[in-house]
Every structure is written in structure tokens, then in C-alpha cells.
Specification:
17% strand, 248 residues, 9 helices, 36% helix, single chain, binds 2-phosphoglycolic acid, 8 strands, alpha/beta
Length: 248
Amino acid sequence: MDKIIIANWKSNPKTLKEAQNIFNGSLNLSKNIKNKKIIVCPPFLFSFLGKNLKLKNILLGAQSVFPSVSNSYTGEVFVEMLKDMNVSYVIVGHSERRSLGESDEYINNQIKTVLKNKLNIVFCIGEKNRDQNADFLSFIKNQIIEGLKNVTRNQLKNIVVAYEPVWAIGKDAIREATDEEFIEIKIYIRKILSDLFGPKSASSVRVIYGGSVNSNNAKKLIDAGADGLLVGRDSLDIKKFEAILKSF
Ligand code: PGA
């Protein structure tokens, strides 16, 4: 399976010109990679940059979606709009959106809406902090169970699970996760998926890592078994993004 590298631009950059530069830079990088796919996830407003994408190793993603397909909701974006824009992956459950009030139920509705419309999901999970008693493990388990309620075995192949411990994300990160921590969590996530959906379906799910990914830790995490990486800050700087892609 190709490794997938998600470029999560979050609410950046501030201008269309910068967005065009980063997009074109990512596009050029994609021409020289093998066994990897870049999924560029700009803010909704800049999605049109990827509308006519036809290159092999780069796809367009979105950072969220409204979990309904009819009626009117001021300020929201429907999955049909994303589809028309050539989006193929949708990030849901990111901790920065959970902190705005998106519940497990809301995330579950987003997942079902996206899968019904035949797009792929990047399902973010992760604990706020690691406690001595390892209660964070049941926290993660609960996020998975609630997020994937009523998802079918068959739909599972369209889901990527992104382990993103909140303490490792963004400029306030305490530290990145170690490769050992990632291996443990990946095994744990697979076990939960296997209990829920059976081992065969569970094995079709990619488990990727996100949180302060950079060119110094990318290879370690990939070697530890990450099926891909979710990159925030360093996806906005083409030199840094290139260094990540070249590191493994
Ligand atoms: P970061 O963000 O790489 O800037 O830590 C990752 C994410 O939140 O998706």
C-alpha cells in the first residue's frame, strides 16, 4: 500500500497567492515521489485549486464537512460540493474541531455522510494527555467506537485512522510521539477495529500518525509501521515538506 501524506493546511495561508504557491509546490513534489501519495487539504475557500488535478500521486482533501445533505445551513459546506471540487478525502474528528464543540455523534454523522457519498475519511483520534493509569487507552477506544457506529465492514476500506495525540499537535506541542508509542497505539487501534469489524476488514484500515511531524521524525514513524503521516505546520513550507517526503 502507498504511504499517504496528508497536508493539513488548517486555516492557512492568508492569501490566494500564497495558497497557489504552496499548492503548485506540492504538485511539483508529487511528480518525483514513489510509493507515496500526497493529499493536500487546503481551507474550503482554496479547494478550487485542486479541481482539475489529474496527477497520479496527489489528491485533494477537505478539512471538514457538514453532516447533512439537504436544507440550508448558513456557513456550512455539503459533501456534494466537495465531490464536485474533486475532493477525495475528508478529515473529521481533528482535535481543533472537537475543541470547538464537535461531539462523537457529530463526527459519526460526518463519517456516515462522507462514506455514503463514496469519499474517503481521515478519522482523527487521540488523547489530550497521557495519565499514569493509562486511562487514555479507554478514551481512544471510546472515540473509535462512537465515531464508527453503524459504519459497515465494507465501508471500512475507505477509512484512514489518524492517531494524533493532542499534546503533540501544533506550536504548543509538549513533544512528538515516539516510534514506540506509535507502535503500541497502532496495535491497540487495530485490535479495537478487529473486535468491532473482524480481523480482515480491520487490516484494510491505514493507521497514520500526526503531531509535529518533521523531516527528523518522519522516517522513524514510518519505519515503526505508520501507514502515512498527517503534517500540519511543515506542509505549508515547501522546503520542509520536501525534506519530509525525501526522508523515507
Ligand atoms: P502539526 O499539526 O504538524 O503542526 O503539529 C498536525 C495536525 O494537527 O494535523
